[in-house]
Prior knowledge:
2 copies of one chain form a homodimer. By secondary structure, chain A is of the alpha/beta class. Chain A is built from 9 helices and 9 strands. In chain A, helix 3 (110-118) packs across helix 6. The radius of gyration of chain A is 19 Å and the shape is globular.
Amino acid sequence: MPIRDELLEIPVDGRAIAGTLIVPDARMPGVLFLHGWGGNQKQHGPRAREVAALGCACLTVDMRGHAMTEPDRPSVTREDNLQDALAAYDRLVREFVVNDDEVAVVGSSYGGYLATLLTTLRPVKWLALRAPALYRDSDWNAPKQKLRKLQDLPAYRRERIAATDNRALCAANAYRGDVLIVESGRDDTIPHPVIENYRDAFGNARSLTYRVLDDADHALSDPSWRHAYTTILVNWITEMIAGKRTGDATSQRRRQDAMKTQQAAASPESVAAR
Amino acid sequence: MPIRDELLEIPVDGRAIAGTLIVPDARMPGVLFLHGWGGNQKQHGPRAREVAALGCACLTVDMRGHAMTEPDRPSVTREDNLQDALAAYDRLVREFVVNDDEVAVVGSSYGGYLATLLTTLRPVKWLALRAPALYRDSDWNAPKQKLRKLQDLPAYRRERIAATDNRALCAANAYRGDVLIVESGRDDTIPHPVIENYRDAFGNARSLTYRVLDDADHALSDPSWRHAYTTILVNWITEMIAGKRTGDATSQRRRQDAMKTQQAAASPESVAAR
């Protein structure tokens, strides 16, 4: 069994002693879940649990302005929540069990927008976006809650936008990892042009997986849509984890199995490639 | 696969956001190594590596007055180093991979004395002492280096001492876990009466394993003695880890195998039960 060392400084009496942690190397990929505006970490609990069962260390968080800190919501900015996402990422990779070369970020709506920006600030190997939101670059430090009116978002989200004209699309264009984009077929908040903008911007991604939940709304209000999204996400992560070990015959077999499962899962009515 | 949750507070911008780490439960026993007076963590590196290969998270440390902080040695007290041991223990069990119900402490000489005291302050399931030192309770805050003269230790270490008359022996008497004591057969620093005092004091231990390295000196200056000690320690830890899962048939077989190995290892000239 491979062994891994980590040098420590252990605080004691206002000083520090040197230590070495010597542990069997059983590192696993890390997966960070970023909820949407108005969401919270609990929504991702069951999904994170399924992903953990694949052998991943998952971290869900409540970003500022949500759950316990909901009273602060009116003043929270994109910058605040991007800092939250960075702090969460750094906390996750600090875990001894997490392989910091293998981090996935999974974001819904506003969390998908933040996840995309995060790829320019930290290494992200796998990026899963469900109904990723889009905002104008202006008013960066304005309260997020005011952007809808301030930026006339419903109109902006009907436009075709070049990757060079938006910070998130620019990040998407620079991204070289694997991408999953899941669209809701009946999404009044994030209409199809936004998804198209993202999909086109990810032209340099190592792989792109694009799925549509046909009848689903933005919030996945029906349990069957949430279930379908979880299935897509779990199959995609299974394939990604298997894919990173392509040199190994057993893993290749697992990868093929995973792909078969994915094909099977893509068949039901609620999930179809568009 | 069982999944484990840990609630986190993640600091960001002088505040904190709530997070939940959701990870496959692959916890393992933790093993803390405490070196002797004048020693350092490097001495335990190869040994800790062998123990880690059994599936344990090991922590070695340089206590104050040793390695990088050797210049401070003249002023270091037993209290200082006991605090070091406590800080190291707390750091080890804080690791997500460590099962805090399953901690072993392994101490040599002065480190064995501190390890014994540690059992009264923190849960220690398994305690391994090689040539454990003994001091009078008086002068607790005097520099450790002065104790030899101050306490006339060579004379004290020839005495038979009741468990009630010494803090470390009292700790030994209260200890309910499993104990390994390894004596050096030709030890001028820790003569046989000290070992006898410890052995008798451990009357309430769940199990006692006592071995003698026949020709070895206190410092195990010959590599073959160090190797023999490592073999005894590794076999003992193997048996302890297997023993905690006695309900499980596979582990029972492993336990039997471990015991066979231990019997075999006890045969060579340099290792004999006395």
